[in-house]
Amino acid sequence: MRRPLLTPTIFALLLAAAPAHAQQQPYAFDLFGAYLESMRAQAGIPGLAVAVVGDDGILWEHAYGRQDLTRPIATRSDTPFHLDGLTQLFTTTLVLRCVEEKKLSLSDPVSQFEDNTSEPNATIGQLLTHTSVTGDGLVFSYRPERLESLKTAVRRCTDNSYRESLADMLQQLGMYDSVPGPDVVGLKPPAEGVPDPSDVERYNAILQRLAVPYAIDARGRTSVSQYPTTLTPSSGLISTVRDFARFDVSLRRGDLIQPDTLAAAWRTPAAFAKEPLPHGLGWFVQAYNGETFVWQFGVTENASSSLTITLPKRGITLILLANSDRLVRPLPLAAGDLMVSPFGRLFASFFVR
Q1: pLDDT of residue 274
Q2: DSSP secondary-structure letter at 330?
Q3: Residues of the chain with pLDDT under 70
Q4: Which residues, other chains included, contact 10 with Cβ-Cβ below 8 Å and sequence gap of 6+?
């Protein structure tokens, strides 16, 4: 039987040893990385790429394990991974840019864009916050598949398909190691988002370096698995920690949307007379030890997982990309508590405590 990710005793010792404000102590990154490597091995993650990003770029990056166990090929900081649920951060940014341009409104109902929808009265804002209106007020339920309707909303705003709009954003940010969906290289007219031949060549080269997905059984044994085969507003984007860092810096710097818009996105809605809900516009938002944590995760069962955490007050972001689901599974992150994750608690112990 595989051992638990971290025993309470080991994790308590980890927290006691972790220095506060690690971004001001370069040596602490080595210690942070050592703990990450131990946790990766215990979780059974074959390959893990990590970056800590400041206001102006990457402060520290590292890669652990293997992106391909059969050859074997070591993971690198420029290894492409599926972002899974982190794709929705790019979708959110596209939508919020349209809201700024007054081409969309967060109060627009889905029925304005789609005729046959199961949620005609759901608004763009409710989709991005994963909320619904019920008789009890505003209710949170994390269902990324609801974002599918936003493809039509993005087209209404940009006059391009969702895939083309995403590809344009990747180009704008210089994210040249990213691919707008694993099926983009096979698109033919009249499909939407058919790339230029030069882009097809580049995308194919990136996909050749894509980390191999693995399923991990209860005894810690690995087997090659499969990724999702297409792009949606909530999954399918392929990228690296270095490219994702470009997105993170540009977002926080105000290059993609205005700072006030981002600040509003990083606030949670109130469930009418109840406590604030755990998800803002595109991101989970959580208070811990007097600090605001803005975060999001992604997972494809038996294939891949991802996690990003931002501390707005400190101007720092953690990016984790893995080629198995064990960065997230079996943790109940969809309930909105980052601190159920040993990786989240490790980051908090180094950068907040």
Answers
A1: 67
A2: T
A3: 1-27, 272-274, 353
A4: none
Distance in angstroms (rounded) separating the CA atoms of residues 105 and 352:
36
* Stated pTM of the model: 0.93
Identity of the amino acid at 224: V
What is the 3-state composition of the chain as percent helix, strand, coil, each rounded to the nearest 5? 40, 20, 40
pLDDT score recorded for residue 272: 65
DSSP 8-state assignment for residue 153: H
Pairing outcome for strands 73-74 and 58-68: antiparallel
For 19-28, the CB contacts below 8 A with 24+ separation are 19/350, 20/350, 20/352, 20/353, 21/351, 22/350, 22/351, 23/52, 23/54, 23/59, 23/314, 23/316, 23/351, 28/350
Please tell me the CATH superfamily of domain 8-351, with its number. DD-peptidase/beta-lactamase superfamily (3.40.710.10)
For the record, the structure tokens of 129 come out as 């916050």
Domain ranges of the chain: 8-351
